[in-house]
Amino acid sequence: MFFNQTKRLKVKEIMSKDFIVFDSDISLRRCVEHIALNNLKEVIVRHHEKLTGYIKFDDIIKISLSQSFSEKKLFDIRANKPFYLNVEDTVLMAKDIMRENQVDRVFVLDDEKLVGVLRTQDIVYKLYPKIQANEDLYELLWDNVHEGICIIDNKGMVCIWGRGSEKLYGIKKSEIIGKKLEEFFPTALLLDVLKSKEPVENIIHSPRKNTYVNISALPLIKNGKLIGVVSTERDVSEITNLSRELEFTKEKLDYLQVEVRKMNEDKFSFGNIVGKSKIMTHTIDRAYQVASTTSSVLISGESGTGKEVFARAIHQSSGREGAFVAINCSAIPESLFESEMFGYESGAFTGALSKGKIGKIEIANGGTLFLDEIGDMPLHMQAKLLRVLQERQLMRVGGDKSISLDVRVISATHRNLEDMVKSGTFREDLYYRLNVVNIKLPSLSDRIEDVPLFVKLFIEEFCRENHMKVPNISPEILNMLMNYSWPGNIRELKNMVEHLVVFSKNNEIQIDTLPEYINNKEDKTINIKNEKSLTDLIRKTEIKAIHDAMKECGNNKQQAAKLLDIPRSTLYYKIKFYDLNQYL
């Protein structure tokens, strides 16, 4: 008897009145805004007062990912052919039309006026509580509909598994019906709805790796009791993957825009590298000669000698169109190294961003990858980097697709990589791969005649940035600066110049503002017999110990703290306390 009643059920009783009609000349951008605002599933197209078709949400999203999106109108998208029913027609007639034409919705007319839309999920949600015991009607209603349909009981057992679900997941009805849904899909959204008893609609969900569905799920209530959950699902894997690729592209574009601004501001080029000394001009000529090739370059030199400046100049002179991407290998925690370098896919590990993340190497594709402090790269990452350089391909963490690469590698270190190779802390094969051309940068003490050039440059830069008048500096002070050994190299000199300008008076840099270890060279050699104050002795001893440790460790504070056998926080405090600006 119930079957006969359902056969007479009319579309007007369960149709949805949630629809919108647009003229075909509306801009696609405005159309997308309406979709987002009203949570629409399709847009019905009208041309000269006549309904011409409908466009699904999926199709509009695909077009919106294209570069010419802002220029398109609704009529630029091919509309789907609509199928119509009258308000007095039965639901079974609607189901037959859907099955025969492989569509998941029909449009309802009343006196030739559009009054509603009947979708697959409307049929499933509104009829199931009445027909769960009728197998014949189950076969008639949803076994052949376009969307995937799943129904579980209040214990999470699968009761209904439509053919759409079979196609979507490759699981036969005979394999899953009567079994716990959790065994097949541990993160299934239906299980959450079963617990919360709250419906969800149009959620993008990934029940399996690389599979994305647009799912709506509804708790089934009968006589006030929960009897199960029903869901309808549409495969949106292609659209989701396109959207994620768009996010990766946007992330790369943002990075490139920052780099372009940085290149324009800093104007990195060989012509802007400061240095007139013989050793420096020879080094610049050597770097300029290798810039136009694709050879890997290893830049060695003490900390603060300008290794990144040279790397950027090589990139800018190379003519490579891609980005210059710098990675400081000593600044990345070992646990994050692989994901930072190679990027990762959605859900690759706990704490990963839901949309995934593009890696630094991929951002550098077509450009230059600068690996600063390469000697601090963990051994396991050295092996993975070598493989990428050899195969010219990478795979994101959690991914299964190789990405082709065209990357020029420039690396830099203050360490002796040959000694590290001998001790087994750096891979020999990677060393030879990176060290095709070696450029050794001289320390500032080896090009002391360039100190006045740097002093002039740094004074002018600092005064321009801080809107200050350029102070005078006496030959006597310049001579003192040239007689200092500069263990911190150019970086130390720049910090020192800023210190002198800040404390200048009457537009003149004062000699008494020079730190004592520069103003009085004999302070570096401590004669205990001549010291009368224990405080002075401790002060000078600690300053000398910090200088010696920082020089030995290449200004690496973490290593210097270990060498001095003190916590790193204590070292930072003493550097600040003694006003050792070159190490700040």
Automatic annotation (TrEMBL):
CDD domains: AAA (cd00009), CBS_pair_SF (cd02205). Pfam families: AAA_lid_14, CBS, HTH_8, PAS_9, Sigma54_activat. Keywords: ATP-binding, CBS domain, Coiled coil, DNA-binding, Nucleotide-binding, Transcription, Transcription regulation. Residues 77-137 form the CBS domain. Residues 239-266 form a coiled coil. NCBIfam families: sensory_box, TF_PrdR. This is Sigma-54-dependent transcriptional activator. It comes from Acetoanaerobium sticklandii (strain ATCC 12662 / DSM 519 / JCM 1433 / CCUG 9281 / NCIMB 10654 / HF) (Clostridium sticklandii). The gene is prdR.
